[in-house]
Amino acid sequence: MTCDQAQDLLGAFVLDSLEPLQESEVKAHLEACPACSREAEALRAIAMTIGEAVDEVAPPPELRERIMREVHRPQVAPAIASASPGRRWWARPSAAWGVAAVAAILMLAAGGWGLNEHFSAPSPGRGLVATALNPVDRLIASGQAQVLPLTPTAGSRARAALVTDPATGATYVLLSGVPPLHTGQAYTVWYMSLQQGSLKAIPVGDMTASGAYRMPRSPRGFLKVAITKEPAAHDSTPRGPVLVEATLT
Amino acid sequence: MVESVVFSAAELPGADTDAQLMWRLRAQDESALGALYDRHAGVAFGLAVRMLRDHAAAEEVVQDAFVSLWKRAAAYRPDRASVRTWLLTMVRNRAIDRLRRVSAKERDSALDDGLELVAVSDTWRLASEGMRADTVRGALLELPPEQRQILEWAYFGGLSQGEIAERTGIAVGTVKSRTRLALERLRRLLAETLAAEAPEL
Lengths: 249, 201
What we know:
The complex is a heterodimer. Chain A has helices at residues 3-14, 20-32, 34-47, 61-72, 135-141, and strands at 146-152, 159-164, 171-176, 186-195, 198-207, 211-214, 224-230, 242-247. Chain A is of the alpha+beta class. An 8-stranded antiparallel β-sheet of chain A has the order 5-4-7-8-1-2-3-6, covered by helices on one side. In chain A, helix 1 (3-14) packs across helix 2 (20-32), helix 1 (3-14) runs parallel beside helix 3 (34-47) and helix 2 crosses helix 3 (34-47). In chain B, helix 3 (55-71) packs across helix 4 (83-99). The interface between A and B is large, with 104 and 106 residues.
């Protein structure tokens, strides 16, 4: 199929209106032709706005309840982020560490926070990255992010995940569901490795509230990552309770 | 203290946007799904009713779409589509399955993944976040009637190009070209309207 032939069919293609045979021909062309592929994507963006034109119709009140009931069942938990097709060194926590993480827990903040357009200007002195585009969002949006949800320990309301950029090794911890701490306390990130049969933990950084934090180093090569709540500034040994943890491979 | 704080909950006030709600959805926050439902169920149900003309079937389709939104939140790509567009596309995919009598088991879930929505530009992306029903409606109304009809049959009716050709009595090749022209024109009309409505962009 030539570009001209494909272009002529793109309108019908993005509306899923081609016959199957022709559709597969167009698909094959798009896979081989970045220019036509870009045009198809742009046209599809237009086509998919057509649905916005409908008159709203109020659904029956029980529909909301049915949906909430259905998602409340644990087996409907979100699957591991398919936004992270390239993950390699991530593994589900092994049986030895308990429950396998099935949820793509990225973050949950008490106040919520925004993606790009709501990323507020950095406040002086807090170290916020002074870019209009939040780097974690950008990473997720790239489709290249490697996401490892950390499993909450029993009774813990904390939710956390490690997000890594495989290209640069930049690692972020997303922490949510925890109350802000008093001065002197900390949520501490630990990387752990097995040394002479026992687990050694090194403190990676302290956090004081839900948020996304750039880690100073990648967890590559470590066995396990955990976040604890520390009663005082960290030393070399975790003393507070473990809130979330996961095993790396 | 971790030196490089990207952002912290304490520092970003404001009501939840759809994008924020999607973050919370990824963390399995059911209240976020409730909030998204309250915001978009009307248009989702409106779309399903318009396509299926059957309230019971429309309810099933909308339920399925919201459950998918929940399950597949991690696959959401904010740079590709607004949450509303993604949701409506899932509603439409499911409604078309029904119209074409494809069983749910046969459905290729890649259909949702295959949603290759890419912003034409940042301006477009920002604008499309706030795309209003009457903006799209107005643009559709400005299309020549025969072009609008083709788009509506294909989008809402799930009709193939051959079926549209049969209904209109025009050649299939012409239907295909007109579909393409109609979308091009819709793109220009939407861009013009958005530029007029949002000069600050």
